[in-house]
Design goal:
single chain; alpha/beta; Rossmann fold; Helicase, Ruva Protein, domain 3; 5-stranded parallel beta sheet; 25 helices; 12 strands; 48% helix; elongated
Length: 609
C-alpha cells in the first residue's frame, strides 16, 4: 500500500456544504465496508480533497477494532502490480482477492487503456462478490472519462457517484484555522478571513498562501498583520505564474478576473445579481444550488428567472420545515435524510421520507381504562394464569396465547386486562391493540399512501400484540399474508402475542394453514360462560368492546336484580368485589372457581404456578 500521510484523517478534514455528502459516504464505507455505496466514486477538480478522503478511509480502517486488509494506490501502481502478478503466473485473483477495501486514485487515466479497464472490471466483480469495498477517485465524473467501457460505467453508476465542490467562504475560514492549529501558528485577527475572501478555488492554493504566511511568521518571529496579506498573496501569485506552465494557476487567474468583474455591481445585470445572491445565501446554508447555477451560467437573461428564484426559495423553506418536523418526530432513518434535505431538487424524496416517518411513528389505537389482571384475582381461571404468565414471565412459555369463546366479549375482557397490566408494568415498551378488520383496513390505507414499508416496521417492532376477531381473517386476502409475516417477525424477536376469537383455530374455515399451525403451536384455551366467573355479568350488562378501544363500561347498579344472567348461571352472592378501574362491580358465585377440565387443568396449573 502507498505510504499514508499521517495528517490526512477524517478528524483533520474540514466538512462544509460542498463536501458533506462525500465525507459522510466515505465514513460509511470505512465503518461498514461493502454494505452500502459500493463502489463509491469521488470526483473533483485538483486540490479539493479526494486524496485526503481516500487516505482518511485507509487510516480509519487500519484503526478499526476488526483488522481489515486495505490497499490504497494510484491507478498506475494498481496496474503495475496486476501486470507483475500476471507475469508470475499468479493471475489477478491472488493480488486483490482477500481485500476488505480497495482505494484507487487517478482513475481518469483509464482513458485509452482498454486492457486496464478489463482488469479493473474483473477486480470490481471479484471484490463485490466477496463483500469488499471499492472507493475510486478521479478528476472528472465517470461519464466524462473518454472511452470508458460501458460495463465499468454501469458498475460505477450502480454505487454512489459524488463530487467535491470548491469550499465556500465559511469552510475556507475553517480550513485556514485548522491548518494554523496543526502547524502551531497563531494568526492575527482578521487574517484568516482576509485569506478566505480571496478567490482561491482549491485547498492547495489556499495551502500555498498559508505556507507563505507561516514562513514569514517563523523566519521573522512575528505575526503577519492583516494589511500584509494582500502583498504576500500577490508575491505568491507572481511565483506561481513564473512556474512551468501551471494550468491550475492559469485557471485560477481566469476565475480571479471573472470574480473581480462580477464584483463591480454597476456593471452586473439585475437578473444575474439576483441569482447570484440567492445562490450565495443558499450555499451558506448548505443547500445545493444546481438549479440556479444553470440559469446563472446563461449568456443572456433567462426567461422566468424571477419565478425560478421564488420557487427555489419556497422549496428551501419547505426543506427547512421538513427538517424541523423530522427532528420533532425523531427520524428513525437519519441516513436516508443525508443529501436529501440539502437538495431542493430532491424535495419529493424529502416529502416521501417525512410521510414514512409519520407512518412509522403513528400511535396504535388506545386502550381505555378498565380492570387489570390483579383486579381479577378472585377468579381462578387457567386463562387468567396463562395471561399473567404472558405478561410477567421473562420468557413466556405460553406464547402466543389464543383464547376463544362462543361469546367473544368474554375473551376480549381478559385481553383488555392484559393490555392495561402490561401498559402499567412496562410504560416504555410498545403495545398494539387492534382487531382483524382494523388491521386489514390499516394495511390497505398504508398501501394507498405508499408507506407499506414504514407500516410494516411500525407493526413488526411492537413488544406486545393483542388482536381480537381472529376468525375474521377469512374475510381478508393479502392482509392475511401480512398477518402471517407479522407473526413471524414478532416470533423471531421474542415479542408477546395474545389472540382472541369466537372459535378454535381448527374451526376457522379458509385460513392459511401456516397461521393455523402457529396459533395451535402456542396455548389454545376455551372460555365458556360456566368457566368465566365474573365475565358473566360483563356479558349480561352488554359490555361494549369497540374496535378502536377495548374497555369494560360500568355496570348498572340494578343489573344483579334484573335476572339477566344466562340460563344455567348462578345468581351472584351478596359479597361483591369492587373493581376500581372502570367502575364495575362483580359478584362471583361459589361455582366460579370450578374449572370443568379434569386432569388437564391440574397439569396446566402446576406448570403456570
Amino acid at each position: 500500500m502507498s505510504e499514508l500521510d499521517p495528517k490526512l484523517t477524517f478528524e483533520s478534514f474540514v466538512v462544509g456544504p460542498a463536501n458533506r455528502l462525500a465525507s459522510a459516504a466515505a465514513r460509511r464505507a470505512a465503518d461498514s465496508p461493502g454494505t452500502s455505496y459500493n463502489p463509491l466514486f469521488l470526483y473533483s477538480a485538483s486540490g479539493l480533497g479526494k486524496t485526503h478522503i481516500l487516505t482518511a478511509i485507509a487510516h480509519k480502517s487500519a484503526t478499526a477494532g476488526e483488522k481489515l486488509k486495505v490497499e490504497y494506490m494510484a491507478l498506475e501502481e494498481y496496474l503495475d502490480r496486476l501486470e507483475g502478478s500476471l507475469q508470475m503466473g499468479d493471475g489477478e485473483k491472488s493480488v486483490y482477492r482477500d481485500l476488505d477495501i480497495l482505494l484507487l486514485d487517478d482513475v481518469q487515466f483509464l482513458t485509452g487503456q482498454p486492457e486496464a479497464q478489463e482488469m479493473l472490471l474483473k477486480t470490481l466483480d471479484q471484490l463485490s462478490a466477496s463483500g469488499g469495498q471499492i472507493v475510486l477517485a478521479s478528476d472528472r465524473p465517470p461519464a466524462d472519462i473518454n472511452g470508458l467501457d460501458a460495463r465499468l460505467l454501469s458498475r460505477f453508476s450502480g454505487g454512489l457517484i459524488v463530487d467535491l465542490g470548491a469550499p465556500e467562504y465559511e469552510t475556507r475560514v475553517a480550513i485556514i484555522r485548522k491548518k494554523a492549529e496543526e502547524r502551531g501558528q497563531t494568526l492575527e485577527e482578521g487574517v484568516a478571513e482576509a485569506v478566505a475572501r480571496a478567490p482561491l478555488k482549491n485547498v492547495r492554493e489556499l495551502g500555498g498562501v498559508l505556507n507563505k504566511i507561516f514562513a514569514t511568521q517563523d523566519l521573522e518571529d512575528r505575526r503577519v498583520s492583516i494589511d500584509e496579506v494582500g502583498a504576500l498573496m500577490q508575491a505568491q501569485d507572481k511565483a506561481a505564474a513564473l512556474s512551468s506552465g501551471s494550468n491550475e494557476f492559469g485557471s485560477f487567474l481566469d476565475d480571479l478576473a471573472t470574480t473581480v468583474a462580477v464584483a463591480v455591481e454597476k456593471k452586473e445585470e439585475p437578473w444575474r445579481k439576483a441569482l447570484r445572491e440567492a445562490i450565495e445565501t443558499a450555499d451558506r446554508q448548505g443547500f445545493s444550488t444546481l438549479r440556479l447555477d444553470a440559469l446563472l451560467d446563461s449568456a443572456s437573461e433567462p426567461k422566468g428567472w424571477d419565478k425560478a428564484i421564488e420557487s427555489f426559495k419556497a422549496d428551501l423553506q419547505r426543506l427547512h420545515e421538513i427538517d424541523n418536523e423530522l427532528g420533532r418526530l425523531g427520524n428513525p432513518w437519519p441516513e436516508a435524510a443525508q443529501g436529501v434535505l440539502e437538495d431542493p431538487d430532491r424535495l419529493d424524496e424529502a416529502e416521501a421520507l417525512l410521510t414514512s416517518v409519520r407512518e412509522r411513528q403513528r400511535p396504535f389505537p388506545g386502550l381505555a381504562d378498565g380492570p387489570q389482571l390483579h383486579d381479577l384475582d378472585g377468579f381462578e381461571s387457567i386463562a387468567l394464569k396463562a395471561a399473567a404468565q404472558l405478561v410477567g414471565a421473562e420468557k413466556p412459555e405460553y406464547n402466543p396465547l389464543y383464547l376463544w369463546s362462543a361469546d367473544e366479549a368474554l375473551a376480549k375482557t381478559l385481553l383488555g386486562a392484559v393490555g392495561r397490566t402490561y401498559r402499567e408494568a412496562y410504560p416504555d415498551l410498545s403495545m398494539a391493540v387492534s382487531s382483524v378488520p382494523l388491521f386489514a383496513s390499516d394495511f390497505i390505507r398504508a398501501l394507498g399512501e405508499g408507506v407499506a414499508g414504514a407500516w410494516r416496521e411500525r407493526w413488526w417492532t411492537v413488544d406486545l400484540l393483542l388482536i381480537h376477531g381472529i376468525q375474521e381473517l377469512v374475510e381478508t386476502e393479502r392482509a392475511q399474508d401480512e398477518f402471517f409475516h407479522l407473526f413471524e417477525a414478532l416470533r423471531r424477536r421474542g415479542a408477546r402475542m395474545m389472540f382472541v376469537a369466537d372459535r378454535a383455530p381448527s374451526s376457522i374455515g379458509e385460513i392459511d394453514d401456516r397461521l393455523r399451525s402457529r396459533f395451535e403451536g402456542g396455548l389454545v384455551l376455551e372460555l365458556s360462560t360456566g368457566d368465566a366467573g365474573p365475565f358473566e355479568l360483563v356479558e349480561a350488562a352488554q359490555a361494549e368492546v369497540r374496535d378502536d378501544t377495548i374497555f369494560v363500561p360500568a355496570l348498572d347498579d340494578e343489573a344483579p336484580e334484573r335476572g339477566e344472567l344466562k340460563k344455567g348461571a348462578t345468581r351472584p352472592q351478596p359479597a361483591a368485589i369492587e373493581v376500581a378501574q372502570g367502575g364495575a362491580t362483580w359478584f362471583p358465585g361459589p361455582e366460579n372457581a370450578v374449572i370443568h377440565w379434569p386432569r388437564f387443568e391440574e397439569l396446566l396449573i402446576e406448570e403456570l404456578d
